[in-house]
Amino acid sequence: MIDIKQLKYFEECARTESFSKAAEALYTTQSSVSKVIKSMEDSLGIRLFERYTRGIRLTREGEHVYQYAKTVLENLEKIESFQEQKETEVLSVSCNPSSWFADMFVKFYQMHQKEDIHYQIYSASCREIVDRVRERMDAMGFVYIMKNQLAAFQYFLGRNYLEFEILKTTDIMLYPGAGHSCRREEGGREVFDGMKLIQRFPDEFSPDNYWDILDQDKKSAADAETVITTNSDYIMERILQVSDLVNISGGYLSGKPWRKYTKDVLLPGNENQVLFGCVKRQNEELSNWAEIFLAFLKERLQDGENK
What pTM was computed for the model? Predict the structure, then answer.
C-alpha cells in the first residue's frame, strides 16, 4: 500500500531532482528520503528514479506515477482546507441587479466587519438564481417578480423543492430617458406612444408580461423592445441622461442614482406591481448568518429604508 508520506517524499524528490534537496525541504535526512523512495519502488514493483552522481531523474514509469501523485496531493489539500472553511462561515447569496440591495449589503458588512465571516454576493437573473439556490451554491436568492407571475413562479419553485417568501410589494415605475422622443403631455398627464427599453437583465419584465403594463393613456406596452441589457448602474445612468430609452423597474427599493436625471412615472393598478422576495430551499433551516442577514433586510424594509 502506498501512503501519503511516500507520495509527499516522492513529489518533493521529483520537483528538486535531488534526494539531499528533498531532505532539506522535508526537514529530514537524505538516508530517510532514500529509504522511503526505495520502499515505494518495492511496493509498486517499478523504478521511479534514475540515480546519477549529481542527482536523480524520473523514469518513464516515474513520470506517469508523478502525474497521479500530484492529483492525489492536490485533492488532499482541498480536503484539509474543509476544516478551515468550517471555522470561518461563508454567507453566499445571489440577487437580481439592484442598487438598493448593494447599499443594504454594504451597511450589513459595516455592522459586522469584525466578525469571522466571508461573503459571496452574486448578481444574476431570476432563472440563474433559482439554479444556484437549488444546487446549493447560495444559501438564498433575492428576486423581483411581477405580481401576475407569482403563481407560475411558485409552481416552478415547488417542482425544484424551493419556496418564495414575499418581503415587499411595490408599484411599477417608468424611468424615461431625458431625450425620450415619444413622451408628450396630454391633459396634464405623461403619455408614451412607444418605448424602447434599457433593462438590467434579459428576462426582467419580459415581453410576456408587458400585456398588463399600461401607460397613463391605457395603452399596452406589449410592443416595447429591450435594446440594451446591463447590470451597470453607471451605464444605466449615462444612457438615461442622453437617450430616449426607458427603464421599467419597481418604484420602491430601486435606489436608482439616475433619479435626479429622470422623472418617475407611476403605472397605477393592482396588477402593475412587483414583488420583492427571497428564494430558499424548502424545509431547511438557514445558517445562522443567513438568518441574521435576512432579518436585517426585513427590518430595513419595515423601516421604509430605500436610500
Answer: 0.59
Annotate 22-45 with b (16+ C-beta within 10 A) or e (fewer): bbeebeeeeeebbebbeebbeeee
- Interval 7-58: pLDDT, tens: 999 999 999 999 999 999 999 999 999 999 999 999 999 999 999 988 999 9
HSE-up (13 A, CA, CB side) for residue 275 = 19
Cell triple for 272: 402593475
Q: In DSSP terms, which residues pair with 197 in a beta bridge?
A: 226, 246
CB 187 within 8 A of CB 216: no
Cell of 286: 438557514
Q: What is the DSSP letter of 220?
A: B
User: What CA–CA distance (Å, rounded) separates 188 from 287?
Assistant: 52
Here the cell at position 94 is 445571489
Cα separation of the two ends of the chain = 64
Phi, psi of 133 (to 5 degrees): -70, -45
For residues 123 and 129, give the distance between their C-alpha atoms in angstroms, rounded to a whole number.
Answer: 8
